[in-house]
Amino acid sequence: MDKKRTWIDQSICIGCQACVEIDESDILFMDDNGLAQAKPNDAKLVESQMVCPTGAVNIDEN
Ligand code: SF4
């Protein structure tokens, strides 16, 4: 599965880690550049989206 329903816009991520810390599904992680990244997923990580201070966590509806 290559789809990422929840995905990170790394162009506006500031690497605060808040989304990763609240994500209990282990879908989100910090990559080697110190920015959040999402594994392929079909999840709606609403809590991670809500805690992101820059709006970098996106959730596709379809
Ligand atoms: S909460 Fe937002 S700014 Fe912070 S690491 Fe996650 S995506 Fe980046």
Task: Describe the protein.
With 62 residues, the chain is of the alpha+beta class. It has one domain: Alpha-Beta Plaits (2-Layer Sandwich), CATH 3.30.70.20. 18% of the residues lie in helices and 19% in strands. The protein has 2 helices and 4 strands, in the order βαββαβ. The protein is globular. 23% of the residues are buried. The structure holds iron/sulfur cluster.
Ligand set: iron/sulfur cluster
Based on CA atoms alone, the radius of gyration comes out at 10 Å
Shape: globular
Give the biggest sheet.
2 strands, antiparallel
Global mean pLDDT: 97
Unreliable stretches covering 5 or more consecutive residues: none
| Helical segment count | 2
N-to-C CA distance: 15 Å
Assigned CATH architecture: 2-Layer Sandwich
Q: How many β-strand runs? A: 4
Taken in chain order, the helices and strands follow as: EHEEHE
In the CATH scheme, the class would be Alpha Beta
Structural class computed from helices and strand pairing: alpha+beta
Q: Give the amount of beta strand, in percent.
A: 15-25%
**CATH topology, what is it called?**
Alpha-Beta Plaits
**What oligomeric state do these chains adopt?**
single chain
Helix content: 10-25%
Biggest sheet strand order reads 1-4
Number of domains: 1
InterPro entries: 4Fe4S_Fe-S-bd
Organism: Spiroplasma alleghenense
Protein name: 4Fe-4S ferredoxin-type domain-containing protein
Domain 4Fe-4S ferredoxin-type: 4-33
